[in-house]
Structure formats: C-alpha cells, structure tokens
Amino acid sequence: MNTKAYVDQHKDRFINELIELLKIPSISADKAYKDDVIKTSEVVKSELEKAGCDHVEICETPGYPIVYGEKIIDKNLPTVLVYGHYDVQPPDPINLWDSPPFEPVIKKTDLHPDGAIFARGACDDKGQMYMHVKAMEYMTANDELPCNVKFMIEGEEEVGSESLGWFLERNREKLANDVILISDTGMISKETPSITTGLRGLSYVEVEVTGPNRDLHSGLYGGAVANPINVLCDMIASLHDENNHITIPGFYDKVEELSQEERAEMAKAPFSQTDYNKALDINQEHGEKGYTTNERNSIRPTLDVNGIWGGYTGEGAKTVIASKAYAKISMRLVPDQDWKEITELFKKHFESIAPESVKVEVKPHHGGTAYVTPIDYIGYQAASAAYEDTFGKTPIPQRSGGSIPIVALFEKELNSKSILMGFGLDSDAIHSPNEHFGIWNYLKGIETIPHFYKHFARLKSK
Ligand code: BES
Ligand code: MN
Ligand code: MN
After folding, report:
1. Same domain, 374 and 408
2. What is the pLDDT of residues 341-392, one digit of tens each?
3. DSSP 240
4. What sequence ranges are listed for the domain Peptidase M20 dimerisation (predicted)?
5. pLDDT tens digits, one per residue of 11-47
6. CB atoms within 10 A of CB 52
7. For the residues 288-312, what does the mean pLDDT come to?
8. Nearest residue (CA) to ligand 1, atom 19
9. How many beta carbons lie within 10 A of that of residue 102, not counting itself?
10. Which of 83, 156, 157, 333 to mutate to test the pocket of ligand 1 (most atoms within 8 A of CB)?
11. Which of the 8 DSSP states describes residue 124?
12. What mean pLDDT is predicted for residues 114-128?
C-alpha cells in the first residue's frame, strides 16, 4: 500500500492519537508541570514501540528525559536520525484562548477548510513530531523501510535544550547517523511547499536597572532622581538608530552578507506585503532600512524586547518611582555571528550607555548558533524529491527566522546536517494563544516523510 492510501485509511486514528498526546500539558518552563512532562515522555516511548521501533528507552539527563528509539535493519544502509520535542510553550495568556489549550478541538479556518486541531503544541512540536512516528508506523507495517532509523525526542527544546547538549557529548556513537530529519518549522503555504534551509541563532539576556534603594513617592522625589524605568526606556530606544540598524559596536562585524544573486533568488518566493499587513492588522511594516520583509525576518539579525516591567502595574494609579526596572531582550543572529561574543558585546555596550545615576546589570540567559542547509546536499535533494512526489511541485528553499539552537550543535557534535521538513504555516500561532495545526498539513506530512527515506536511500547508494 502506498503512503497516501495508508494515510487515508488510518487518518481518523492518526488524528485521535495526536489529540490524546496534546491533552498532556508538557510545559517545560514551569516546574508545576514536571509530572506531565515526564508522563509525556512515557507516552512517546510507548508510541515509538507501537510504531515498530525495536528498541526504545527513556534516557535520563540532568533535566527532562530524552526518548530514544531505533530500528536498525542493516548496518550497510544509511541511518536517519529523527529529532523532535515533546515539550511545549506555556499557554499564557490563557484568557485569549477560544478553547482551553489542553483540551484539543477541531475547527475550520480560512486557511484550513478541512479543519485544524487547536491546542498548545499542536504544531510546535507534538503534531509535527508525531508525523514521524506515524510515518514510521507506515514504513514498518508495509515493509517499506529503506533506511535504519533512530529517534531522539527531547523535552527541553522550549527552554534551551541544555540536557540535549549534555546527552550529545556522551552518546556520539549511539546517535551516529547519515542525516538528521526534523519537522519543527513551517512552509510557505499549501500551494507553495518550501523546505527550511536556515535557522537564526539567538542570544537572550535579561537586564536590570536600579535607581534609588527603595520605591519613592513620585511627588516628593520626582524630577530629582533618575527613574530606572525612564532610563531603561531611553537605553533600549538607543539600541536602534534611525535606519533601524542595531547600534551595538561590532554587532554586524561577522554578519554574512548575501550576494545580489542570492537575494534575487529569495525574492522569487511568493509574498504579498498587503496580505501580510492585513493578517497582522498593521498599517505598515517596519524594519532595517535597505531590506525586504522576508530578508528582515530571516537573513538579518535583530534585537527585540520580549518583556519589560517595573513599578506599579496594578489597578488604578499609584504615584511611585520604582527602585528597579527590568527587561528581557532577544537578539536573533545570522551566520557567522557567535552568540557568546554577541552576548558579551551587548553586555559591554549596555553597561557603557548607563548614566551615572543608575546601576545596570546584564544577565545572559541561553543562546545558539545560526544554521544553513546547503541545497546541493543529497539530504536536501531527497527532501525536495519527496515533496515533488506528494505536492506535485518542487519546494522552494527558504531561510526561517526562528531558532532551533541544537541544530548547529548537531553539526558540531555529530558531524551531520539537518533537513528541516516543516509542515506548519506561519498563521498556526505557535507560542501564541489558539495554536493550531491543519489536519491537511498533518496528514500531508505523514504522507511525505516516507518518500524522504526512499529518496535518501536511493541517492546515498549512488
Ligand atoms: N519550532 C520552533 C522554532 C521554529 C519555528 C523555527 C518555526 C522556524 C520556524 C522552536 O520550538 C522554538 O520555539 N525555538 C525558540 C528558541 C528556543 C531556544 C526557545 C525560538 O525560536 O524562539
Ligand atoms: Mn519547536
Ligand atoms: Mn517553540
């Protein structure tokens, strides 16, 4: 039976199984959900066993466990390592969800007339990870497995994959592979399939600005002492110039500039600024001068405040000058920026622009390196051929603005390239309220993945 027929025959079960997985709130960022995160790893283990893995284990780490599964059919055949994550983002703000985040429901939308599953993790990444489990089920049940398979599904991606780094260093041999296959990104649209060929890096920091040693009456002291919130706003505002260039000295030194040819190639991807603005309810786009929207959100580095707080934010008014102000800031990085170096440059610069009237502390969080998949690599070609089989079109290579920091580490530690076959849409609201994953996308993913194995085995044996 071919993949399409198998998916058609089993689609109701595939949907229901995913719904069960989505009911467990595996929020890695919040310790209150620890038992649920662990329970999810156990469910993933049993699903991998059911899908035909010969050996599945829960690998303990200093943090959340990694689920490892494998089916080795012939040492002479190539090995595909599937990576995904079973943890999800916190669902907050809960009141903006139309249905509870861990009670999945199927609803139709304009872009998903066949329905989409609404739940936290539906697209990022439980739904996309589970496509691989179902593709494995198809291949083992129909004797269509042309490669060895290893699964490595982690539970800390949304909080920086720290334990996975630890695990990689200790298990290089066990994880040895010819290619890494990941579905944790998106594609342009159902009509225009694309394969993600780049991820941005990341440097995440928190800053703290301290003014007076206690909160003050804003009448008695206002005007005479520095207000840390005012100062923090000034400092943050100064991080971009009038062209929206980032002002940190040295920030752009290692940024790879794309050639005019490469930029022209990028510009061929279908895109409507009007539709983009309309989808976000904005009157005008915004960004670095000299670059298009798609360049700004993929090949250019950024600096954004992710959260800012301090002072009184409760009901009504309170006249106060706070002692402290805080912000969380992310910088998305591109090849060949080094995240540790950028974090240092940020720290040095941010401390240097602080006025004498306040104290500033910069606390680095996590980070990661950008990644690019070359399109002349056979893994990319296998993926491209797989999409041709199921979409009837050659997919467009597209660099994404998101980050999966572990992918660059895979290259360093395991010496393998990653293929990013994402089936989500930008409108799926990952990390936002009402996250969803189109049923069409989910089933198309399951249908396409086995074709990748087939083409990879074929191209590898050439
Ligand atoms: N799956 C996303 C990354 C992603 C989504 C890349 C869509 C490209 C397209 C991943 O789970 C994620 O959210 N990554 C974080 C970084 C991580 C260190 C928390 C991100 O990009 O913010
Ligand atoms: Mn993800
Ligand atoms: Mn995510």
Report:
1. yes
2. 999 999 999 999 999 999 999 999 989 999 999 999 999 999 999 999 999 9
3. B
4. 198-356
5. 999 999 999 999 999 999 999 999 999 999 999 999 9
6. 17
7. 97
8. 158
9. 18
10. 157
11. T
12. 98
CA separation for the pair 92, 82 (Å, rounded)? 29
Residues 190 and 162 in one domain: yes
Atom 13 (ligand 1) nearest CA: 158
The pLDDT of residue 254: 98
Name residues contacting ligand 1 (CB within 6 A): 124-125, 157-158, 160, 184-186, 199, 202, 400, 402-405, 430
Q: At which of 343, 367, 391 does a domain end? A: 367
3-state secondary structure of 233: helix
Average pLDDT of the residues of the chain: 97
Where residue 12 sits, what CATH number does that domain have? 3.40.630.10
Task: Measure the CA dihedral 264/394/382/390, to 10°.
Answer: 150
Indicate which CATH number applies to the domain containing 232. 3.30.70.360
Residues spanned by the domain of 219: 201-255+301-367
Relative to beta strand 116-118, strand 105-107 is: antiparallel
Q: Indicate whether 168 belongs to any domain.
A: yes
